[in-house]
Design goal:
mainly alpha; 4 helices; 2 domains
Length: 112
């Protein structure tokens, strides 16, 4: 019983440390906001392909950019912590990608 109480106490301390680190901007390698944005952008690209709003060339370029962002995210996580600067860089890349998706879906090019 004593070992169980010690284990529970240790887990509670770890949880408190994680909450404290998160409150101070140190989230380790967790990037849920970035992951949600990447997923949503993939959905937007897929919808553009299905609707015919994106050409094959546009789709290939957008998918290549998305792969590069995922690679940058992996590199940011490789040392065990994604710093504020790395997060800001990823967000900047995602903002740029989002604008490209919008531009390509709303241009007046002939679709094949």
């Amino acid at each position: 019983m004593r070992k169980f109480v010690s284990t529970v106490f240790a887990l509670a301390l770890l949880g408190a440390a994680a909450v404290s680190a998160e409150a101070h901007g140190h989230c380790g390698t967790r990037t849920p906001g970035i992951n949600r944005r990447q997923e949503r952008q993939q959905q937007r690209i897929g919808q553009g392909v299905r609707s015919g709003e994106l050409t094959g060339r546009e789709t290939l370029r957008l998918e290549r950019n998305a792969r590069e962002i995922r690679q940058d995210e992996r590199e940011a996580k490789s040392d065990g912590e994604v710093t504020r600067r790395e997060r800001a860089g990823l967000e900047r890349e995602l903002n740029h990608e989002s604008r490209l998706i919008y531009r390509d879906k709303h241009n007046e090019k002939e679709r094949n």
